[in-house]
Specification:
By secondary structure, the chain is α/β, with parallel strands linked by helices. Helices cover 42% and strands 12% of the residues. The protein has a 7-stranded parallel sheet with strand order 3-2-1-4-5-6-7, sandwiched between helices.
């Protein structure tokens, strides 16, 4: 293997919310690039989270190691500051204080999202729980992890979101959470810039996660059959595509030029040249402009 195939060898990453979906894809691709990856979340071999899904942090860590890195699973509830503090203390102890990449990918808000009703008809407690789960967890994690990056005067924070524009996302609390996560990247970028650490927000296109495959009644092997139900699904992308975008950013020696920006896989593949797992280069923004803009309007201006 050439050095370029492992551009993150020797780097240490924390993927908060790495159990499944985009977080898992990011963790595995960081491993493939040679990184040591701490994979955290609430779903483990010891028990499932409230989402009651089968994926576990141990499975993700095994995939990280199989890909060529070192995956270390640590069961962590990122809404609990004491657990996050203990996690970061462990990373510091095991890695001589080193942390190069922080990925805030905690979500878990699907069962709390109400797509049918406006704010004044929604369950307030569910909406506030969504914000605590999807935004407060990111704040807590950064609060304890950032000192390790600041101490090294380098590194990258990635805030995983949905969309990189100001366009309304279809549900009040969902939209507020995803927009707030972008603002977290902007604020962290401003405070971290004097210390040489970059922070960006990053969105996939139509993500072909485990839950989405189940929703369409397909597997990754026959996923194209799902386009019969929704033609847009033909333009979806795997979590690996998102992961390769993170690897490209983390390996970019000029990453500070992008700090504070809201980025997307559909723009980054053009700059860095990475592909999805099957060798294609999905571009959901181009698909939107060609097929959906007439019905739904422009995708929106970048934030």
């Amino acid at each position: 293997m050439t050095p370029d195939a492992r551009p993150l060898a020797g780097k240490v990453a924390l993927v908060a919310g790495g159990t499944r979906g985009g977080g898992r894809g990011i963790a595995v691709e960081l491993g493939a690039a040679g990184a040591v990856v701490y994979v955290t979340g609430r779903s483990s071999a010891a028990g499932r989270s409230g989402l009651d899904r089968p994926e576990t942090i141990e499975e993700t860590a095994e995939r990280v190691t199989a890909a060529g890195g070192l995956g270390i699973p640590v069961r962590t509830d990122h809404s609990r500051p004491e657990e996050v503090r203990a996690l970061v203390d462990r990373i510091a102890a095991e890695q001589d204080g080193r942390l190069d990449i922080l990925v805030n990918s905690v979500w878990g808000g699907d069962p709390l999202t109400d797509w049918e009703h406006p704010l004044w008809e929604q369950d307030l407690e569910c909406g506030l729980r969504l914000l605590r789960q999807a935004v407060e967890t990111h704040v807590i994690t950064s609060r304890f992890a950032l000192p390790l990056l600041v101490a090294r005067k380098s590194g990258l924070v990635v805030e995983v979101t949905d969309g990189n524009t100001a366009r309304y996302r279809g549900s009040f609390f969902y939209d507020l959470a995803k927009s707030a996560v972008i603002r977290l990247a902007v604020a962290q970028a401003a405070e971290l810039k004097p210390h040489g650490v970059a922070a960006v927000a990053l969105t996939p296109g139509f993500l072909r996660s485990e839950a989405m495959l189940e929703n369409f009644g397909v597997t990754e092997t026959n996923w194209r059959d799902g386009a019969a139900q929704d033609p847009n699904f033909a333009h979806s992308e795997t979590p690996a595509y998102l992961g390769r975008a993170v690897v490209a950013l983390a390996a970019d020696p000029h990453i500070m030029a992008k700090t504070g920006r809201a980025l997307a896989t559909w723009g980054l593949y053009q700059e860095y040249g990475f592909t999805d797992a099957d060798g294609t280069q999905p571009d959901f923004a181009a698909h939107w402009a060609k097929n959906l803009e007439g019905q739904y309007g422009p995708l929106g201006d970048p934030m």
